[in-house]
Amino acid sequence: LTDVRHQLRALWELQQIDLKVLEFEKAAATIPDQIAVRERELEVLRTELGALNAEADTLRKEQRDTEATIRDDSAKAQKWKRRLIDIRTPREYQALSREAEQLERQIRDLEERVLALMTDIEARDKVIAEKNEALREVENTVAAAVRKLRQSKLDLEVEATKAAEGRSAKVAELGPNLVKRYDKVRGRRQGVAVALLSGPNCSGCNVEVRPQLVVEIRKLETIEACPMCQRILVIPSLVDGTESA
Ligand SMILES: [Zn+2]
Fold first, then answer.
1. What are phi and psi of 87, to 5 degrees?
2. Which of 10, 62, 64, 230 is 20 to 30 A from residue 205's alpha carbon, by CA?
3. How far is the CA of 3 from the centre of ligand 1 (A)?
4. pLDDT tens, 186-225?
5. Cβ < 5 A residues, ion ligand 1
6. CA 187–ligand 1 middle distance (angstroms)
């Protein structure tokens, strides 16, 4: 393209294509974070359940240990009672029978502890079962949400590809020098290399352009840039179709 009007129009159109592509790409780029947020919800629930299970397991171990102590102590108490039969001296008899009674009291205390543990474990198991069920529901919800998010990422990527159609034609039309200039500004200015002149202002950075430059831009004979942000400036009438080619 040698005609400046055509060049400016093509630059503007290339900019519109790239903005569309960028919009889809940005939207697609947010999706991995959204997926991570959903998966963290599950992690929190799983960690909580893990802690509850560990607590219940500790209590179960205490129950097993206490039951083992009860078995040992009961055997010991039986042995002592059998021995009482053979004891001849009253003092020895009294001493051993007192010890046997003490042991039996201890066994009853341990049995009470086992009952308390069983009640506690049962209540905890109920909570764990409920939380397990809730977790499964959340797992299903999250899995569905993640599937949907993955699909929308694919859709957005397809949209971005579609939006980029016609880009290479514009690039070829503009030629390497203008495209190089365009890409350079675009890279520095958040993807926007071409801005409209809005009144006397550059709509890219909102800075007022000096009158002489406005006159130059309006002539459409040269490609002018905003002195502040270096964006190529085009006048609205050129790109909204009111200015004839
Ligand atoms: Zn500017």
1. -75, 135
2. 10
3. 24
4. 999 999 999 999 999 999 999 999 999 999 999 999 999 9
5. 202, 204-205, 226, 228-229
6. 15
Distance 225 CA to ligand 1 centre (A): 8
Rounded to the nearest angstrom, the distance between the alpha carbon of 164 and the centre of ligand 1 is 26
If 0-12 CB within 10 Å is exposed, 13-18 middle and 19+ buried, where does residue 59 land? middle
Ligand 1 centre from 89 Cα, in Å? 113
Give the DSSP per-residue string, 133-161.
Answer: HHHHHHHHHHHHHHHHHHHHHHHHHHHHH
Work out the number of other CB atoms within 10 angstroms of the CB of residue 202. 23
The rounded distance, in Å, linking the Cα atoms of 22 and 193 is: 13
Backbone angles phi, psi at 202, to 5 degrees: -75, 120
- pLDDT beyond 90 at 2: no
Beta bridge partners of 202: 197
